[in-house]
Design goal:
alpha+beta; 52% helix; elongated; two-stranded antiparallel sheet
Amino acid sequence: MIDHKDITLSDASVSDFSPDWISPPGDTIEDLLEEKGWTKAEFAERTGFTSKHVNELVKGRAALTPDAADRLSRVLGSTAKFWLTREAQYRAALEHRKAVENASQDKSWLAELPLKWMQKRGWVKPHHNPGHQVLECLRFFAVASVDAWRRQYELPLTAFRASPKFEKKNGSVATWIRKGEITTTEIRTAPFDKHGFRAALSRLRELTKELDPNVFVPHLMKTCASYGVAVAFIPAPPGCPVSGATRWLTSDKAMLLLSLRHRTNDHLWFTFFHEAAHLLLHGKKLFFIEGIDGLDEHHEREADQFSEDLLIPPAAARRLAQLPKGRASKAQILAFASEVQIAPGIVVGRMQKEGWLPYSHMNDLKIRYEWDNE
C-alpha cells in the first residue's frame, strides 16, 4: 500500500512516473478510499461498478477504460486523463518487465559484442540485469530483437572474410559500423554531388602535408559534407580489423568511416581516398569495408588504383621507381615528397608497398596518431 500523503492527483504527477515497482491504478484507488473512509462496497455504489469489477480494478486485472476513468474523476477527483495515464503507465511497466524477462533469454548474445569496451566509451550504459543490458544494446543498434540484429548487421557481414592475420568478430565489426551510422546521421550534409566531390578530392590531397589532425580533420569533414559525404573517425573495438568503410545512408548522403587502425598518415590517407573511390566509382547499393575482404576484388583493385594515382600520379610514381631499390636515402625521399607536394610518410608507405623499400626503413618519416584516452 502506498501512503496517501505521497499521492497528488494531477496530470503532471504522472507525466514522469517511472517507479522501480509496478503499481496498478488500484493502489491509488485503495489509498484514496482509505483517506475518505469509504469501503469498497460504498465505492461501488458511488461509481456504479459491481463489487467484482471494483476488486478487479484494484488488483490491476481489469483494464481501466475511458468510461471508468471518467467515473473515477468524478468520484475520486483529478481528471480522466490522470487515470488513463496511470493505467497506460502501469500496462507499459508490465510490458517492460515482460520484455526484460524475454531479453534475458538472449543474454548469450552479449558475449558476441565488445560490451565492456562499449561501456567504457559510453556507447551503452552498464546494467547488472542481463535483460536490461540486452535491451540497452538493442537500442544502440536500433533493432527490436537479436534476430533483427542478425538480419540487419550480422548477415551482411558474412560476405566479408578477415585476413588470416587478424581475427574478425562480426559483433565487433557491427558495433563499429553502427557507431559510424549514429555519428554520420547527425552530420548535416548537402545532397551528394559526384563531380564536386571528385574535384574536392584533388584539393584535399593538399591536406596530407598538414601534420596536425586538429587542423586537417575538421577541414576534411567540412569539405566532404558540402558534397554529400559524412566522414567520421570511429575507433575500432577488439576483433574489428577494419581501416575504413562506406555505405549510402540515403540516395543523397554517403557515410565514410575511418578507424585509424594502423595509426600512420600513409595508411590514413590511402584509406580515405580508397573509400572515396568506392563512392565515385561503384553503386549506391554496395557496402564496402576496408580491412576484411569482400567478394568483389575488382572493385577493391579499382579503389586501390584510384587512391594510389591520386596520392602519387603515375608519371611521378615511375620516377619514384627509379630510386635505388632498398637504398633510397632520406634526402631523396624528402626531395621527391617536396616535388610532388605530399607528406614524406606517404612516399615511404608507397615505396614499402611496392617493395622498393623495406618495411623497417624510414618509418620515422611517417606521422603516428593516437586516439584520446588510449
